[in-house]
UniProtKB/TrEMBL annotation:
Coiled coil regions in record: none
GO cellular component: a single term: plasma membrane
Species name: Strombidinopsis acuminata
InterPro entries the UniProt entry points to: BCCT_transptr
Localization, UniProt: Cell membrane
Membrane topology label: Multi-pass membrane protein
Name used for this protein in its record: Uncharacterized protein
Transmembrane segments: 21-42, 62-83, 125-143
Length: 212
């Protein structure tokens, strides 16, 4: 019973308290990242900085490079959630935030607009900005400054030599944990998609859980 209670408490924390209290902070932080990155790329002198040595040449063409980034960033969500997520927010299945009549929105047109707004927030600039920011900093510190490719050295300008001590170890440990959680989430969503596909193809052969 104790593990079940613990999982239930973690579920309430992850899907209840955190979204209700800290959603504003997440949205504002993404907006700030976009503004900072646009300033760096368009206004500052670092906009044309090469993510490598000045003499380095690209290993892949622009189209190949973009295709790899797009496939790795969107990953398994492209085939399913491009359609399912806006419908999910519109219909309000499974606790979706934009439901009929929620927060005063009472008609189909307003519900559909807000459903698309949330979807574009997840898959648009706000969804890509963490990848872009972290990838750029990691590339600069690794390929231009010569540091090992770990997250601790992304903070070298802030903490300096402490990267080599326990502070750096804590940073790398946290980065590994968050990466594992992110990969597990993607794999879990993929398993749910496969499960639902098998359910729709053959109910008699595959007795999985219907998540629809």
């Amino acid at each position: 019973a104790m593990p079940d209670q613990m999982l239930h408490s973690m579920d309430l924390l992850a899907f209840g308290w955190i979204p209700e209290v800290w959603t504003w902070f997440y949205i504002v932080s993404q907006d700030i990242w976009i503004c900072v990155l646009l300033y760096v790329m368009v206004v500052s002198k670092y906009g044309n900085l090469k993510l490598g040595k000045d003499t380095d040449e690209p290993e892949y063409s622009l189209i190949t490079w973009f295709s790899m980034l797009f496939s790795a960033g969107v990953a398994i969500g492209l085939f399913y959630y491009s359609v399912a997520e806006p419908v999910w927010h519109y219909k309000g299945w499974g606790g979706a935030r934009w439901t009929h009549g929620n927060k005063g929105y009472g008609n189909d047109n307003e519900d559909s607009i807000h459903a698309l707004m949330v979807t574009w927030y997840h898959w648009g600039l706000h969804g890509w900005i963490p990848y872009t920011t972290l990838g750029a900093v990691l590339a600069i510190m690794t390929y231009r400054r010569g540091f090992p490719m770990t997250i601790r050295y992304c903070l070298w300008p802030l903490i300096g030599e402490r990267c080599y001590g326990w502070v750096g170890d804590v940073i790398d440990t946290l980065s590994i944990m968050t990466t594992v959680f992110g990969v597990c989430t993607s794999l879990g969503l993929g398993a749910m998609q496969l499960n639902q596909g098998f359910q729709r193809l053959n109910h008699g052969f595959f007795r999985g859980v219907n998540y629809a």
